[in-house]
Task: structure prediction
Amino acid sequence: MGIFKLIIRRLLLGVATLFVVSIAVFLLTNVLGDPVKRMLGRGALPDVVTARRAELNLDEPIVNRYFTWLKGLLTGEPGVSYTNGTPVWELLSDRVKNSLFLMALSSAISIPLSLFIGGYTALRRDGWADRVMSNQLLVLAAMPEFVVGAFLTVIFATNIWHIVPAVSRIRPGESPWSDLDGMILPVATLVLAVTPHVGRTMRAAMIEVLESDYVEMARLKGLPERSVLWRHAFPNALGPTLQVIALNIAYLAGGVVIVESLFNFRGLGIALRDAIPEANAPVVQFIAMFIATIYVISNLMADLFTIIVTPRLRTRLQ
Amino acid sequence: MSEQTVALTIKDLRLDVAQTGHDIVDEITLNIERGKVLGLVGESGSGKTTVGLAVLGHARKGVAISAGSITIEGSNVLALDRKRLRQARGRLVSYVPQDPGTALNPALRIGGQVLEVLETHGFGADAAERQARVTEVFEEVKLPSAASFLRRYPHQLSGGQQQRVGLAMAFAARPAVIVLDEPTTGLDVTTQAHVLETIRNLAQQHGVAALYVTHDLAVVATLADEVAVMYAGRIVELAATADVFAKPAHPYTRYLVAAAPEMGSDRQLVGLGGRAPSPGQRPKGCAFAVRCELATDECRAEFPAVTNVNPNGSHEVRCFHAFGVPERTVPRATASITSSGTDDAALALRNVTASYTGVAVVHDVSFDIARGECVALVGESGSGKSTLSRSIGGLHREWQGEISLDGESLARSSRDRPVQQRLAIQYVFQNPYSSLHPRRPIAESIGRPLAIAGVDKREIRREVDRMLERVSLSASYGSHFPDQLSGGERQRVAIARALVSKPKVLICDEVTSALDVLVQAATIELLVDLQNELGLAMLFVTHNLPLVRSIAQRVAVMSDGAIVELGTAEDTLSNPQQDYTQRLLIDTPRIPDFESGQPA
Amino acid sequence: MTYPVTVPVDDTIDETLDSAVATSQPGLMRSAWGLWRTRIGVALVVLLVGIAIVGPWVAPYGASEFVGTANMRDVPGTWLGTDYFGQDVWSRFLHGGRSILFLATVSTLIGFLFGSAIGLIAAYNRGRIDDVLMRFMDVILAFPQLLLALVALTTVGPKPWLIISIVGFTTIPRIARITRGAAVPVVERDFVAAAEALGESRFRIITRELLPNVIGPLLVEANLRLTYAIGIIAGLGFLGFATERNAADWGLMVQENRVALSVQPWGTVLPAIAIALLTVGTGLISDGLSRTVAGIDRGRPDS
Result:
């Protein structure tokens, strides 16, 4: 029973975090600048401005506006764009799908890959394969993703080879499936950004576990190596790695802004980049909350999985 | 001993440091019969664990098995291929680890961890039979065998229960040989006594040969049929237990016996300086020669061969001067620890109650310590003895009642006490590896109390040098860092730091529990001398009952946060009044008086 | 653990030991320097810092000086041709490192100072102070770093002090967590209790007992944070939010010139290589330090 209490506590903590973030986001986007002045230009007549403000509910007190916005967010009506009056969801639903697809595909490739690389290099510790791969991971981990992306473009899309498109060409209303070629570089960049961190964590965790007394004991009990690795070592190395995986998924949510921008990928990142200078608060707010929610959810999932693979945590509250 | 009854034969075993080829252990030869226990005794670094693991064909990273044979039931473990070796481990020969807390997999249920041994080795005809064996072996090691218990995880067990699971894993597949690596370290005496009894019974019942690796002579004396003493990677003496303790032939064994504390006497413990040479630094001759009072040129030139010194049986020793008695090991009547205490109490506790986050762990404790007197505070872990001593030192703040120093009441926290009081009560901690600032030269650590008192730098330097000499470390040690010192040396530094400000009260919290027996004896010698010389009031906190009479005049026995018995050390330990004390004494392993012909 | 070959066997005194024992333990920096990766890292960082500092003085043209037709590779008087705006690529490259380095270093320093102080205070005091401080750190962590920077920078404008504040501020909780994690086990060691028994002040215990014993992991983390600060500031430059329009900035250069990548690669490749070498350099130093501190690899430093 303790386990449900624990889950509910984590859940509430996540909701509380989102609440704090929503306040911060709302305040920040409201100091972005006056959208009406930008829309109508400097020479606009005062009563036109007033009318427009009323239309956008900007004349109400900020607290009221916050709660109206929060209610809209929770009921699936996150407002309308300041620039063209389109509902935000209608404007962004395609992009949400595109970005989620990009993130999901990148995670689906990089998580198993990094677990494999981390586990493999730990097993072959100090062998040549470990040295080569560890150094690769180290170099990749250090470089910002737009630099990695730029190199990939130079190597595979423009100057050296010309085998994949340098930019993505998903048209409005189309799904990312329509342009899988164009997905290659953005996904590769994100995979290269995430894999080193998770891989290095997995390697360190696995090395620690392989040196533990209980793995030595498992060998002294005469267990086959397969059982030593999969039954005794791997589950114990997964716990610490899960936390880093969560951090990296959260990081992906932020990192897409840069990668999408680099490859003109039609996702939330570009929408955010374009909405900020326009002071298009509803769009910025929605995207910010979306990223924060992914952050909170991925951390929640990591906590849950960690509890599942760690009996000590699972049973403590019973 | 006939060929049929021998279960384990180790012959000329040698293990090296893989990189350098320096020997870690060499010329290890011994036999163990079915149902018998052989105690492999040595100090830390003597190579005893290395030998124990080699019996399972295992060497730790950086170590290589380079010569010899280990024969169990006709097959040489060291000559087996990978697959065969795997099949032998757990089935033919099994291992009980030192620390079950880390050797049990935290992610797996204990029943499953025992069951997998049986599954791996195809024990029994089917799954039901294996499951039945798991239940049976849990009963054999005196654990509950209900399904709900088997489904527990290691962290849901006590330390003693964890060790019993370790035993269950080892005995599960009915092996011929079991290696036990200090399996009772860290257990309370009561738990230890029960675990030892279980081991003895199982070994006898099932005819298992047990190699029991330990540093604890008293455990070996109560448990083992034979004893092998290791020094610097060699077995220097090997004989029946009674022979080793009644007629130790090797001088090193004599030193060990002289250093072992005895419950029944206040004999002064004898320590020994120097240290065993590490691999690569071992001399051509006898490795013990540099520390041995009997050593001659012959010893330094050549390592003596194994000789049998018992015409009626087997008593092997590697010494040119077997049965020679080194000067220092000649028993001295009593220790010079007669109390010079006067009647006025230096430290007085009145109705002290301490708690941890609201939960009381020390209840209503009152006693005095006179100037020049040492009171031993004994109890098992969790008895509250550490909390009490930390409260006196001002390290634990959650306490009520009164603690006074020379009649002056002390504030709860050391920070609220005036400098003079802080310096007057000094503390020596259990673990010398954690009590010294690792990045500070030791002279600076020792001098800090004086610096706080406002003594000028030149004076501090002089005092620090004097203290270093006094604890038998030369003044040149002042510039060293703690990681360049051995555990015993560090503990001397900690003592020097505690005494440099000339305190009135010294609290020693399990100060020898991390040290080997010879070092422990030397540390106790030093403390007794210093206490007499400085007229200190000393509180000696320990779980090691036999140690008490060698240092303290009075003893306070603590259980569940209360003092259950308080009296002179002699009366309390020879004629305990309370049930708890009596039980504690019964459970404490001791070296029996083999000479009067009364084995354990 | 392997056989304790190097661990001295417990024992009492021995005069002959004096000569065998080294007089001082080698420092963290010196041990880390023994690793090749550290040396390569330091060489790279020195090279790039050198370019960033000396660059503007030796650049043949000004940062925004027009020298010829846009996106040409062969322009007389230039090494590598012109960029999207007809400016000299080589000169802009030489001008473009200073701001990144300055901003990244200062913001990391701020994060390091506040983060380590908060981490140490939380670790030493435990209880409520610890809870409140670390919960607060968690909330900052929950806020996407890049998003915060983007919103603030568009509102106020690309001001250096703002970049420093935001990157510094968001670095604080990360360093605080590492510091606390490293300091908690130190707090539990007896030498801290020994200092408390002597009545040493909290400040002295934190600065003299705790700090020296967490400085290893702390340096590793600070270096890692510097690597990420360079990345994020270059990234902001790339998105066009870190600098004034058309300023010489390695991040911005990648953005400006990537459209013409196939005709004039240098405008993109040169700054990208510079950022890559700089971050790889600091990354290698981090790794060298952490191997020495026996963090990630737990192995002995190998050269």
About this structure: Chain B touches chain C through 69 residues (CB under 8 Å). The first helix of chain B runs from residue 48 to 54.
